[in-house]
Amino acid sequence: RPFDPGNYLVHAVSNIICSVVFGDRFDYEDKKFINLIDLLEENNRLQNSIHTQIYNFIPTVMDHLPGPHQQLIKNVEKVDQFTLEIIAEHKKTMDPTCPRDFIDAFLSKMEQEKGNSHTEFTVETLSRTTLDLFLAGTGTTSLTLRYGILILQKYPEIV
C-alpha cells in the first residue's frame, strides 16, 4: 500500500542530528522531540508566506504588523528556549577532558576564548548554530532521502 515516509525520515534525520549536537537521541514518542519537529515543520511552511518574505526585508516595520511571520518568530523563540535548556544542562555536566558532542566542544572553545572581547564563541552563537544545524540538516537531508526513495520506486531495476 502507498504510504508517505516523510515523517519517518524527518524524525530519523532529526534524531541523528540530535545525537551529534546534543550527544543524545530522543525516543520517537518523546513529547519534547515531537514538539520540536512540529515547530520546525511549521516554520518551513510559514517561510513561504509573503508576510515572512517582507519581514526579511523590513523587519522593523513588520514587527508591528500581524501575520504568519509573528508565529514564525514565536516558534523560533520556543526552539531557542529548548536549545538553551540543553546548553544549560551541558554546562552543569560537562567534563572538559571528554567532550560528548558539538555543544561540549563549543563550550570548551568558549572557555578558551573567555578573555577575548571580540570572540564569536557565545551562548547566543551556540544556540543559533544549533538551530541552523537542525534547519539545514533536517530539511535537506530528509527531502533528499525522500526523492531517493521516489527514484528507487520509479526505477526498481537500479536496485
Compact description:
Its cofactor is heme. It is built from 7 helices and no strands.
Strand percentage lies at: under 5%
Ranges with pLDDT <50 over ≥5 residues? Answer: none
DSSP summary: helix tally: 7
Count of DSSP strands:
0
Helical amount: over 70%
Question: What is the global morphology?
Answer: globular
Radius of gyration, in angstroms, nearest whole number: 19 Å
What about the largest sheet?
Answer: none
Domain tally: 1
Order of helices and strands: HHHHHHH
Termini, distance in Å? 20 Å
What value does the average pLDDT take? 88
Structural class: mainly alpha
Keywords:
159 residues, mainly alpha, 71% helix, 0% strand, oxidoreductase activity, acting on paired donors, with incorporation or reduction of molecular oxygen, reduced flavin or flavoprotein as one donor, and incorporation of one atom of oxygen, heme binding, iron, oxidoreductase
Q: Would you give an account of this structure?
A:
The protein is mainly α and 159 residues long. It has one domain (5-158). Helix content is 71%, strand content 0%. It has seven helices and no strands. Helix 2 (31-46) runs antiparallel to helix 5 (68-93), helix 3 packs across helix 5 (68-93) and helix 5 (68-93) packs across helix 7 (123-154). The mean pLDDT is 88. One of its GO terms (molecular function) is arachidonate epoxygenase activity. Belongs to the cytochrome P450 family. It is a peripheral membrane protein.
